[in-house]
Design brief:
A hairpin with a 5-residue loop joins strand 1 and strand 2. Helices cover 9% and strands 46% of the residues. It is mainly beta and 164 residues long. The longest helix is centred in the middle third of the chain and has 11 residues.
């Protein structure tokens, strides 16, 4: 099983925005999750440019096993990414996947192979007094058969002001 982190860990998600989360029931037991991210193109912009471009990244988990999210203040900038954390509970997911291979429902999955594992938690720029004891926003997804895709639409945004 390959940790998909190595395919995306060099991306700088800071200042990017999560545009949408889509869950599809591809098969009775298979849940496909697609995270659409308006990626702040740190690699393709320069600090002194008048405009910055963004591009769209689709992060696709074809067999999603975890989706947790918190947005304590939906009125604010809910889904701007501040930072990301990889490999949360990695060993537990891998162990569970090996155990699930023996269970009957695994035999019903479209893809019987579990590959390209990813566990990533995006910490968002969303804070507030939550009634559920989580004062900071996040989206944590994990699963198998992960891939990503760049959509070639570029959006020019306002000038970026670097915080020093």
């Amino acid at each position: 099983m390959i940790n998909y982190k190595k395919h995306i860990e060099n991306l700088n998600f800071h200042d990017s925005n999560i545009e949408s989360i889509k869950i599809e029931d591809c098969d009775y037991f298979d849940r496909k999750l697609t995270l659409r991210i308006n990626y702040y193109n740190w690699e393709g912009n320069s600090e002194d440019s008048d405009t910055w471009t963004t591009k769209t990244l689709l992060l696709i988990i074809n067999h999603c096993v975890n989706l947790q999210m918190n947005a304590p203040n939906l009125m604010e900038d809910t889904f701007e990414i501040m930072s990301e954390e990889y490999d949360l509970k990695y060993n537990e997911f891998v162990k569970r996947a090996e155990e699930e291979k023996k269970r009957s429902y695994f035999n019903h999955l479209k893809s019987k192979e579990l590959k390209n594992f990813l566990s990533i938690k995006f910490n968002t720029n969303n804070f507030g007094d939550s009634i559920f004891n989580e004062s900071a926003g996040f989206i944590w997804i994990a699963g198998f058969n992960v891939q990503h895709e760049w959509i070639e639409e570029k959006v020019a945004n306002k000038k970026h002001i670097a915080v020093k």
